[in-house]
Amino acid sequence: MSDETPARPPSAGLLDALEVRRNALVGVVAGVALAVSVYLVRVFELVGPVGGTQRYPGIGPEGWFLLLGFVLASATALLVAAALTLVTAYRVTREL
Question: Between the CA of residue 27 and those of 3, 5, 23, 71, what are the distances in Å?
Fold first, then answer.
């Protein structure tokens, strides 16, 4: 028996073929754009005031909405990047 671990095939070719870097960049841009637009609409009340009053402990409403905006941007970026990668994978398999 050999103590060497078997060599793994390089994954860079797969990442390049699926255009993961481009898809991730498009996802981040889409996520940030969505989060910024929702943040602007909510905090600056661009579509009118929100009914009722709420308390926002610690960092105030702007801080809480910034945190929610980060979560929204991250989730949207992941979703868009994954969807684009799946579409690219489908196209590559159809070409083969």
Answer: 42, 36, 6, 13
